[in-house]
Amino acid sequence: MKLTTHEVRPDTRDRAVLVSLVTPELKRQDAFDADYSLAELISLAETAQVDVMGTLTQNKEYADSKWFIGKGKAEELKTLIGETDANTAIFDQELSGAQVRNLEQFLDVKIIDRTQLILDIFAQRAKTREGIIQVELAQLSYLLPRLSGHGKNLSRLGGGIGTRGPGESKLETDRRHIRNRISELKRQLQEVVRHRNLHRERRKETGVYQVALVGYTNAGKSTMLKQLTHTDVFVENQLFATLDPTSRALKLPGGADIVLTDTVGFIQNLPHDLVAAFRATLEEANEADLILHVVDSSSEMMPTQMKVVDQVLEELGAHGKERITLFNKIDLCPPGQEEMLTTEGEFLRLSAYNEADLDRVRELLERKLMSDSRVYRIPADKGDVISLVYRVGEVLENEVDGSDMLFKVRLNNKEFGKIGYMLAAYDAARLAQGEPGGETTNHV
Q: How far is the C-alpha of 100 from the C-alpha of 269, rounded, in Å?
């Protein structure tokens, strides 16, 4: 059987009934809210170009091993599908291959779960080679243990949700073929990761501070990047508008440059296969010197969204990173709500479209990243060190003193070690010859 990519035309859009099963185990999860999760599933379906024909919710002690929902509720679902002329059922939780097979046979419609829906959206969004590889790897990793349950699904004509791939010409349902393809994609991804790591190392060698924007999907991270850096960045009011990390130079008020990177948005129950495939991309947050957590302060589910971001950062090993919370979209908050926006650690309340608010972000970044000023004595013929000082710091004053240059400089914090190491070598040589030492250690 083959899985091919199809353009979704208005007359072939999927028509779906959305189904949610709420169990006591789910209710015990801190970041889970049944109503919000279903509302988010509706947004995901609409993002995937699906017409939502209706919703169905069941409260049950545990998922049915055969039907996922109860047999009676499956009968109700079948009736609703017939009444609404739906051709797809989308479940808010992840299904096993056997459950998919049983539901397909009973309902005679395409069965999609939340994970497959998110993967489908990512398949639509992937444009770069890295993004395409990551999405296909996640899709195959999801599909492999479920092949026996997706036979009818994969063979349905017309394409649409659940059958979109990031450019692959065919996908045989043979396990060995898929395993070989997964191995090849992992090899390609390792090569991409190697290049990404080289770029990271080069950025580190330049001494430029790296700041990562993280947050729930559609919180306004790309808008923040675009407005702060005054550069062309794709911005769209939709889920997962950004897949590939986008880095731009940001000039701080004092003149120093830093690198600001936008990352893929997080979401409740982000598929593990997707986190694994996108780890190299998500680790931009882990490699950053500082994290800016962008929060949609106008969302009714703001606390839940913040918890989800915390959980993903913890999974990535970046939970302990220094972080500043940016409560974005305060212009959309009801009167009086703005004052209630607070959290542990440093935070700002702002709108990404307010230039005065953006100036406060830039000033806070400079205060966090730049040190107090110091005076450095550098031999005038040491152009590499002088160039480094200008690149990583803000030169407040400079003057000639014999064969040396005196620089009053404010450096970014992590460059003290590099500059100090270089100057210590000069000190040792100059002191041995009875000449003046290097760095003036007093803060000025």
A: 19
Q: Choose among 37, 425, 360, 76: nearest CA to 224.
A: 360
- Count Cβ neighbours within 10 Å for each residue of 140-159 and write b for 16 or more, e otherwise: bbbbbebeebbebbbeeeeb
Residue 244 tokens, joined: 């590939």
Pick the closest to residue 406 from 372, 428, 373 (CA basis).
373
**Which CATH number does 10-178 carry?**
3.40.50.11060
Q: Please choose, from the candidates 62, 61, 64, 68, the residue with its C-alpha nearest in 3D space to the C-alpha of residue 19.
A: 68
Residue by residue, pLDDT tens for the chain (444 residues) are 232 333 444 456 899 999 999 988 877 776 677 888 899 899 999 988 899 999 999 999 999 999 999 999 999 999 999 999 999 999 999 999 899 999 999 999 999 999 999 888 888 877 778 888 888 888 888 888 877 545 445 444 345 666 665 444 444 447 788 889 999 999 998 888 788 778 767 766 666 788 999 999 888 898 999 999 988 766 666 666 666 678 888 988 877 788 898 887 888 777 777 777 676 667 777 778 899 999 999 988 888 889 888 888 888 777 778 899 999 999 998 887 877 888 888 899 999 999 999 999 999 998 887 766 777 788 888 888 788 777 767 788 888 888 888 888 776 666 655 665 666 566 566 666 666 554 443 332
> 286-306 burial, b if ≥16 CB within 10 A, otherwise e?
ebbbbbbbbbbbbbebbebbb
The backbone torsions φ and ψ at residue 431, rounded to the nearest 5 degrees and listed phi first, read: -65, -35
Q: Do 207-353 and 371-443 fold alike per CATH?
A: no
Please, is 260 exposed, middle or buried when counting C-beta atoms within 10 Å of its C-beta (0-12, 13-18, 19+)? buried
- With 0-12 / 13-18 / 19 or more C-beta atoms within 10 angstroms meaning exposed / middle / buried, residue 367 is exposed
* CATH classification for the domain delimited by 371-443, as one of 3.30.310, 3.30.70, 2.60.40, 1.10.260: 3.30.70
Domain boundaries, the chain: 10-178, 207-353, 371-443
Give the Cα separation of 328 and 231 in Å (integer). Answer: 19
**Are 120 and 142 in contact, with CB atoms under 8 Å apart?**
no
Q: Name the E strands within 252-350.
A: 257-262, 290-296, 323-328, 347-349
CATH class of the domain defined by 207-353: alpha beta
Helix (H, G, I), strand (E, B) or coil at 9: coil
Neighbours of 82 (CB within 10 A): 12
